[in-house]
Design a protein that fits this description.
This protein has 152 residues and is mostly helical. The protein contains 7 helices and no strands. The chain has one domain: Up-down Bundle (Ferritin), CATH 1.20.1260.100. It is 84% helix and 0% strand. Helix 1 packs antiparallel against helix 3 and helix 4 runs antiparallel to helix 5. The longest helix is centred in the middle third of the chain and has 27 residues.
Length: 152
């Protein structure tokens, strides 16, 4: 049950954020100036789905681990904060159409992901490594966000 919940929560967050994303992709984002390295729109849904599943598995590994209560609690709080920031990035970027504010928010999100990886690593190396593709993708998204902001 813990595994199911751990995967379901990030997927639900992503699904709701996807509602903001889809309205923005077909709206202002479709006509916005984008850099040459902007990937095709179809790539985002499968990549994010995989990343949310990896996040869920990582969270599960931490949740089920027998670790120091304070370390585990901090790791789980950091995970929750970065997931909330993940959700709000889509809202700010796509729904509010504010790439500048979204850029500031994604920087904070990146820092929280890094902290989550570090804290997860204190509990489970596998959990920490499962978040590496996520921070790599968010690093790319940060550059992309910045570029779109500057081009528009």
């Amino acid at each position: 049950m813990k595994l199911f919940i751990s995967i379901l929560v990030p997927l639900l967050v992503g699904a709701v954020a996807g509602l903001f994303t889809s309205s923005g992709v077909n709206g202002w984002y479709a006509v916005a100036n984008k850099p040459w390295f902007n990937p095709p729109n179809w790539i985002f849904a499968p990549v994010w789905t995989l990343l949310y599943i990896l996040m869920g598995i990582a969270f599960f590994l931490v949740w089920k681990a027998s670790a120091d209560k304070n370390v585990k609690q901090t790791a789980m709080i950091l995970f929750s904060i970065q997931l909330i920031l993940n959700f709000f990035w889509s809202f700010i970027f796509f729904k509010l159409q504010q790439p500048g504010w979204a850029f500031a928010e994604i920087i904070l999100m990146w820092v929280m992901i890094l902290l989550t990886i570090l804290w997860f690593g204190k509990i489970s190396a596998m959990a920490a490594w499962l978040l590496v593709p996520y921070i790599c993708w968010v690093s790319f998204a940060t550059v992309l966000n910045y570029s779109i902001w500057k081009l528009n």
